[in-house]
Automatic annotation (TrEMBL):
UBC core domain residues: 4-167
Pfam families xref list: UQ_con (PF00179)
Domain of life: Eukaryota
PANTHER family in UniProt: UBIQUITIN-CONJUGATING ENZYME E2
Region called Disordered, residue ranges: 163-188
Stated name of the protein: UBC core domain-containing protein
Gene3D superfamilies with a match to the protein in the record: Ubiquitin Conjugating Enzyme
InterPro entries: Ub_conjugating_enzyme, UBC, UBQ-conjugating_enzyme/RWD
Biased composition (Gly residues): 169-188
Length: 188
């Protein structure tokens, strides 16, 4: 690990502990010997109130390269019962498709070295209920197809997954609209 990555990640950890948004977790993974792995963080993103994902507590991992913060962390949701989160912006591997964690010039990436871990986690929470999905390049074709062809079944699958990651049972609702032909698909 480079000195810059090490010092930046320690600073990120201090800052996150001081101003942690409610329900979020971001901390270095614990190694078998009890030490911390600053290059791999275990995180939790709560579903937003008033959305289909409300009540869910979504575990994810951030993996940092040695050239962090010049390169973004690799962010992925943990699988839920062996399956990816049912979302058009989440790849089957769990990898999250989000512009702020893609390098500039790649896939519309807008990563900048000043982007904080807290900002990434808040953006991921917002992404869960993102109202527009690019119909030309969904990250998870199955979720995209289910959403566009059978929204009732899509909602049911999402709520089933949310129930599996909700302490004490699932709650919540969702609302929204739909995209017209050739326009953006709107998640409900």
């Amino acid at each position: 690990m480079s000195g810059l990555a090490n010092s930046r990640l320690k600073e990120e950890r201090r800052n996150f502990r001081k101003s942690r948004p409610f329900g979020f977790v971001a901390k270095p993974a614990t190694l078998p010997d009890g030490s911390q792995d600053l290059m791999r963080w275990e995180c939790v993103v709560p579903g937003k109130e008033g959305t289909l994902f409300e009540g869910g507590v979504f575990a994810m991992t951030m993996v940092f390269d040695s050239d962090y913060p010049q390169s973004p962390p690799k962010c992925s949701f943990d699988l839920i019962d062996g399956k990816p989160l049912c979302h058009p912006n989440v790849y089957p591997s769990g990898k999250i498709c989000l512009s702020i964690i893609n390098p500039q010039g790649s896939d519309g990436g807008t990563w900048t070295p000043s982007t904080q871990i807290k900002v990434i986690l808040l953006a991921i929470q917002t992404l869960l209920d993102e109202k527009e999905v690019n119909p030309l390049s969904p990250a998870q074709t199955d979720a995209y197809q289910l959403f566009t062809k059978d929204r009732v079944a899509w909602r049911k699958r999402v709520r089933e997954q949310v129930a599996r990651v909700t302490p004490g049972g699932a709650t919540g609702s969702a609302s929204g609209g739909s995209g017209g032909p050739g326009g953006p698909i709107v998640l409900e």
